[in-house]
Amino acid sequence: MSTSTESTASGVPAASPSARPAPSASPAPSARPAPSASPAHHAHAVLHCNLNTVDVDRSAAFHLSLFGGEPRMRSISTDGDTATMGLGAGTASVTTFLYDLRGPRSAPAVELVGWTTPHTVPATADQRPTGFTALGYRVESLRIVTARLEATGVAFTPVPEGLAVRGAVRPALRLTDPDGAVIEVVEIPAAPGDPRRLPLLSHERMRCTDLERTLAWYTGIGWTVRDRGESPTGPTASLVLPEDPTFSLEFVQQPAPAGATATPPANVQGLYRIALAVEDVREAHASLVADGAIGDVDDPVVMPMPDTPTGGFTVLFLHDPDGAVVEFVDRPRSAVRRPTEPA
To answer: Are 157 and 163 in contact (CB under 8 A)?
Structure first.
């Protein structure tokens, strides 16, 4: 059963001072790879960054008060089957998608999921990291965000040395949301079509134990390496999708915590997975199997969401070399309109 409403530590390494100046802008849309030139298993857009929360309404209020945007879709599941996520049948959850003012065709969302059966649970010391260490926003001036943080009494920490995003050191600050997720805000000049004076979702920071192995895996599903660098904890890399270059994955190599070997469950609190668009999930699955570059691949599954405009999604869950969950979702290119700037 489901009902719906439509929308009315951090462990994050600082950027190396030697990081290069801001790179040049991304190629114009005409210079992007034609869809026919891309393998079916290459993602073409970032759809959402998942954050599991103990209180969806509190989390949504927090993120919307600081970063603006709109809740565009809300789904309530009371008897779900999430066996493919390791949680079994009879699960219950509330999901809300928060979009910045670029809207769902032009930008990814923050997907807030509040699990009630089973409940969202904190990570434990014996679990390996989910791989996702921070969610990142960009804004044309940090003063826009600091004024809002100070007005709402939310604590934040300036990052004097800046943070590297897409190969350049950016003025930055960090804060923590009510579920302990680290949020980064970096200063990047706005593009002509950007909503003015509002933070826009721009990147997700990730950790890995072997950067070369990780890069081979992600480039195998369509990401390209935009920049390489160094941080105090190890080598770094910035990855973008050629057809969605304003969002990046910022990787840093770090050793795994001692004794942390257990797999975190899909209802673990905080940042847990990322969803990417492919033209057709079943074709992507067949292409991955034929290609063999990332090893064994599970079968696609249908995730019903009868209370949403789409009615549900066909998805494919993948796991990167360190176990981070990457989700393929059916979303044709005709349904998205990603910008090319700022890169």
So the answer is: no
